[in-house]
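Good day; I would like, with your permission, to put a structural problem before you. A protein sequence and the structure tokens that stand for its backbone fold form the material at issue. The record follows directly beneath this note:
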Amino acid sequence: MREAQDTQRSRATERDGAQVSTGTMREADTGESAAIPELVIISGMSGAGRSTAAKCLEDLGWFVVDNIPPELIPPMVELGARSQGNVARIAVVVDVRGRRFFDNLKESLATLDAQNVKRRIVFLESSDEALVRRFESVRRPHPLQGDGRIVDGIAAERDLLRELRGDADLVIDTSSLNVHELRAKMDAQFAGEEVPELRATVMSFGFKYGLPVDADMVIDCRFIPNPHWVPELRPYTGLNDEVSGYVFGQPGAKEFLDGYAELLRIVAEGYRREGKRYVTIAVGCTGGKHRSVAMSEKLAHRLVSEGVETVVVHRDMGRE
């Protein structure tokens, strides 16, 4: 019976075209070695900025998983290797929230090393004073303080993480860093020569339907005469050439576009320096059909010419 089961398992393995051997990742169906994803493990003190570091890597194109049990890291890397290059970089956050699994981390790291996985450990550190201040500001207990004080939880966490800190490839002390400075440090380590991309959404809207709640900047085009009052233009939208020509043929319209495009160029440079990746620019007129649509299209074209990845959304067009 056992021999028959072994034979069945052997045939299943041959049929799947995959086999595991020490020191290698599974092979693809083509027989070629799978591309092993790059791995970053983010850990460190609670309140030291792990979430910010993870979000930074996510913005740089990494596949990020928060609070994963350590024993699941090797299977995740293996699944990434089977993705045919779609998951080339994986970042996982491991912390004391999963402390019952934490003892398995050393075993998982050994498994990854045996599979020739390129991995780095990033450890976020901070002073006791800074951590206490942060926990008190959000009025939340430390995960390990139990019935004690915040400092007791911090001391217990330091003791638990001492060995991992010693094994870390990169230790970042965030005691005196703000969010933007931490993002800059992560960018410096992981963005390579690539400049972090800024992505913009230009959204036309009608003021009579309310302001977009997610707008970072709001532009008001209601100073431009309304094509709605031109009978032959009323049925059309700002996507129509005649409507757009009418809008930008009005006094001040082109100057307004030029001035705001220059302002956004300056703002975009500042956003990049501060590590801001996404911006939503809301362009409004009365109904969101003519002026705001035409202005949004032209403004988005200017942003694209400045190297900003831009999406145009016409929220209220067709709503009337």
